[in-house]
Specification:
262 residues, 7 helices, 12 strands, disordered C terminus
Length: 262
C-alpha cells in the first residue's frame, strides 16, 4: 500500500500544474512537514480537484472519513483503513470507493516511499520512488467531505485517499512483502492525470485509467535511510537522499543468488 509520501513543497510547480487553477491562499508549503508524511497521521496536504468546471487547489486531510463514520468513535476505529483505495474495488458496488468514484482528485508529490524485504536484513529497507524528469507529479486519488464537522473547529473537512493498483515489475521487487505487498500507487502520464480530473468522465474511461500501468523505465528509485524514526540520519541528509546500506543486494539479484545454489 502507499502509506509514506513526500508531498511537493515547490509552490511554483504545483500552482502551474493545472491551467487556471484556483488556489486556496491558506495553503502552506512547508518542507519540514511534507518531506515524509505517514498516512495515519491524517495531516492536511494539497490536492487538486474540479467542481463545476473549475480546478481548485486546497488542503484536504489524508484518510477518507466515510458517511458511516458519523461519530468520533467510528472515525477513530475505521479511518486508518481509508488512506488507500484499491483500484480493483472502485467498480465493486459493495465498496465505498464505488460510491465516491465521481469525486476524483490528484495529489501533487515529489515521490513516495516503499519498503523492501531483504534476506539477511532484520528490518525492511525503505526506497524513494519518483518519476524521471518530473520534479512534481501527481497520484490519482478520490476525495470526500466528512459527514460531520470537526468537533473542535466546526469545520467540514475535505478528505482524500490514494488509489493503488497491482505493482509493475519494478515495484514488485521493492514492495515485495507483507499482507499488502505487490501494490503501488496509480501513476499516470500528465495528460492522463488531467483526464482523471474531468468531472463527466464515463465509467469506461475511468476503468481505462485504473488499468494503466506505468512503465518501470519511466520511474526512478533508490534506497534511503530509515524513514519512520524521529532520529536524524547519520549523514545529516534529507530523508529522500540516497543511502548506501552495507551489503544491500541489487534489485533482482536475490533470486539469482538463490538459483546459483542449485
Amino acid at each position: 500500500m502507499c502509506y509514506d509520501i513526500s508531498f511537493s513543497t515547490k509552490y511554483e510547480l504545483v500552482t502551474d500544474y493545472v491551467p487556471d487553477l484556483i488556489i486556496d491562499r491558506q495553503i502552506r508549503f512547508e518542507y519540514e512537514t511534507s518531506v515524509h508524511v505517514v498516512a495515519q497521521s491524517f495531516l492536511k496536504k494539497p490536492v487538486i480537484y474540479k467542481e463545476e468546471g473549475k480546478a481548485y487547489l486546497k488542503e484536504f486531510e489524508w484518510g477518507v472519513i466515510a458517511d458511516y463514520m458519523n461519530t468520533p468513535e467510528q472515525v477513530k476505529k475505521n479511518r486508518q483503513w481509508m488512506c488507500n483505495a484499491q483500484s480493483e474495488k472502485v467498480f465493486d458496488k459493495k465498496s465505498y470507493w464505488n460510491r465516491i468514484r465521481r469525486t476524483r482528485c490528484i495529489i501533487p508529490v515529489e515521490g513516495f516511499f516503499e519498503h523492501r524485504e531483504v534476506r539477511g536484513f532484520k528490518n525492511k529497507i525503505p526506497y524513494f520512488i519518483s518519476l524521471k524528469d518530473r520534479p512534481v507529479f501527481a497520484l490519482a486519488g478520490l476525495y470526500h467531505y466528512a459527514p460531520v464537522p470537526d468537533i473542535e473547529t466546526g469545520e467540514v473537512r475535505g478528505t482524500f485517499t490514494v488509489v493503488t493498483r497491482k505493482a509493475n515489475s519494478l515495484m514488485e521487487q521493492i514492495h515485495n512483502g507483507g499482507p499488502n505487498g505487490g501494490r503501488m500507487p496509480l501513476l499516470l502520464p500528465k495528460e492522463l492525470e488531467l483526464k482523471w480530473l474531468e468531472e463527466e468522465l464515463p465509467d469506461a474511461e475511468i476503468k481505462e485509467l485504473l488499468d494503466f500501468e506505468m512503465a518501470p523505465e519511466a520511474m526512478a528509485y533508490h534506497p534511503v535511510y530509515t524513514i519512520r524514526t524521529t532520529k536524524e540520519r547519520p549523514d545529516g541528509k534529507s530523508k529522500v537522499e540516497p543511502y548506501e546500506w552495507p551489503e544491500l543486494p541489487a534489485l533482482g539479484s536475490e533470486g539469482m543468488e538463490q538459483a546459483a545454489l542449485f
